[in-house]
Design goal:
2 copies of one chain form a homodimer.
Chain A lengths: L3 H8 L3 H8 L7 H13 L6 H8 L4 E7 L5 H17 L4 E7 L5 H13 L4 E4 L5 H8 L6 E4 L8 E7 L1 H15 L4 E7 L5 H16 L5 E8 L4 H15 L3 E4 L4 H11 L4 E4 L4 H9 L4 E4 L2 H16 L9 E4 L2 E3 L6
Parallel strand pairs in A: 1-2, 1-3, 3-4, 4-5, 5-11, 6-7, 6-8, 8-9, 9-10
Antiparallel strand pairs in A: 10-12
Chain A binds a DNA duplex (16 and 16 nucleotides) through helix 2 and helix 4.
Chain lengths: ~325, ~325
DNA sequence: CTGAAAGCGCTTACAG
DNA sequence: CTGAAAGCGCTTACAG
């Protein structure tokens, strides 16, 4: 690899002049300029990015992260995506500083935010609680980009959101239901809570798809809540089966394990679609106890957040959209290899 | 950000000594060492990666790539994955040098390899033809890692392969067939060629899954070749429908468009699973003319190849396995958002 | 055990 | 229009 100094020597001039030509800053004798350009070309000159970064004072970056991941397998996957993606970039000064917390307590999340911010990060990524206090705290952080991950809240200064398109998740689950029930049938839905927007959007997406087509009728015969809890889920699902006789049950939130157990106990030919890619579901899937998982791919959410911030902080490229949805992935028994 | 010089000043010593302590090269008065460590810690010292890379003489890398992508939508997707993934790394001296060629002509591929190698790349990625000449040419390139992409050939000096697990693709398609035909039924298969390993592996994977379970019988009633050609596919599919009366057809190679048209014309309720994620298939999918696409995700193949080489060339990390399979992705109508 | 100096490859004033 | 010099933050001999 030829250097600026070598070019200067070959051209019988100085580094300053070579630099001027290479960056066409003008003020150079055209003849010398041509000589320099020819030499550079012939030797396939490329500037040394490290020297450039050094003299330009390129910053190292640390991304502050607040994640409600403690004891939550879903967010542990998000975390894996974050760590593995950022690992690649570490060599050139791109790091992460994660504060993991457990559950949802506003005071604790506020404390975590403050701790992370105190370390002076180049950006903040967070799974924010949707409360006034958090909203206020975040909206004051106007000097760095803020990325919400998996959970979203309104924020004027939001840089990006990375997470699930819940309506689409519901629609894809609807696709599966139609595949399984080509002649129509009854569907029961077990949701987490009617108060949670994402759950409702899933239901809506699902109904939209199964409802619209042809002469085939798929009826949603009942929707019950389980509060994301396995015991509740078990009870609610039993009741749903007894009273509504569904041909298929769509579990559009957590607490799937209890629900699936209720279905297995009932020993009827009831098909199941779930949203959680957690170990017990994988087991159920490969045994044929459930038919499909439609998962929001937590690993990718973590990795994509890192890519978005790297692209911006290092390459100066903003994401095309604020909303960045990861694919709703369809997992069948042999998707797991 | 504090620097080595500042630490030296604060500690009342020299840069050399600070360097020694920070890299524990020994030979430093323990008292001074402690002082230095304390200052570094207190000021959260991190070495400047650019200065380090400069003095260490970190190499810039160009990955030579030979791709049979001209006029091939599939490989254009691979190309997109390659370009976008490598774009991110360009800033720190990681580049690609692609030679695109059309079709499969050994001489031309040899020429492309030589051209790319002449530019002295740090690695070579290629969609190799499985011929003696190519094999010989590649096996002589022992000084750089070679990654085969999408197509694989035996090679002692192969660094990695990135591509499709064909058997798994067949198994996942089998999963879908079982979802669609819960009570069993007849399946016809349209393959490219009995001489192509990947196609045969798909068929085998498919049969393995639909054949093994319960009392439900899914019979593969016929397998026909279409030589990846739409016209052949149309004719062969018509014949298949007429003679074998399948409930479902599995297109496990290219030339799907002609085949699907034959099915539509037949106007029977025949379900379809295909492997090609190309624009006409997306249209068919959203119209309900076909039920699912099981695609090998060409974009990811390109991107993953770059990640593998970046990880090795820049971070010195070898891939865990030589065989790197991308996920066989299930696309249903609403997967496309 | 320690420090002064040179050098990695570039850019940036500055003087002429 | 041009060149000499300083400096970015680190590492590497070298001399003591």
């Amino acid at each position: 690899m030829i250097t600026i100094k070598q070019i200067a020597d070959l051209a019988g001039t100085s580094r300053g002049t070579v630099d001027r030509v290479l960056h066409n800053r003008g003020s150079v004798n055209p003849e010398i300029a041509k000589r320099i350009l020819d030499i550079a070309e012939a030797n396939n000159y490329r500037s040394n990015p490290f020297a450039k970064a050094l003299v330009k004072g390129d910053k190292r970056h640390v991304v502050g992260i607040v994640l409600n991941s403690v004891g939550n397998p879903f967010f542990e996957e998000v975390l894996r995506g974050i760590t593995e993606a950022s690992e690649k970039y570490r060599k050139y000064g791109f790091e992460i500083n994660i504060k993991e917390i457990k559950g949802y307590n506003e005071e604790e999340q506020l404390k975590a935010i403050r701790a992370v911010i105190a370390a002076n990060p180049s950006a903040l990524a967070i799974t924010p609680m949707n409360t006034k206090g958090i909203s206020k705290e975040l909206s004051e952080l106007t000097s760095i980009p803020i990325v919400t991950i998996n959970q979203d809240i309104p924020l004027k200064n939001k840089f990006a959101f990375v997470g699930c398109d819940y309506s689409n998740s519901g629609r894809v689950s609807g696709d599966i239901a139609k595949l399984i029930l080509p002649k129509g049938g009854n569907v029961g839905i077990v949701t987490g809570s009617f108060k949670i927007l994402g759950h409702n959007e899933r239901i809506q997406g699902f109904e939209e798809v199964v409802g619209t087509k042809d002469g085939v009728k798929i009826n949603v015969v009942g929707v019950v809540e389980n509060n994301d809890d396995d015991i509740n889920s078990y009870t609610a699902t039993r009741k749903l089966i007894r009273e509504k006789k569904p041909d298929l049950i769509y579990f559009c939130a957590a607490g799937t394990e209890g629900g699936v157990k209720a279905v297995i106990e009932a020993a009827k030919d009831i098909k199941i679609v779930v949203v959680d890619d957690i170990p017990p579901m994988r087991t159920f899937l490969s045994r044929g106890s459930i038919q499909a998982i439609v998962t929001q791919h937590p690993y990718n959410q973590g990795a994509e957040m890192i890519e978005i911030l790297y692209d911006f902080l290092v390459n100066g490229k903003k994401p095309k959209k604020v909303q960045n949805f990861t694919e709703n992935r369809v997992m069948l028994p042999h998707s797991i290899s």
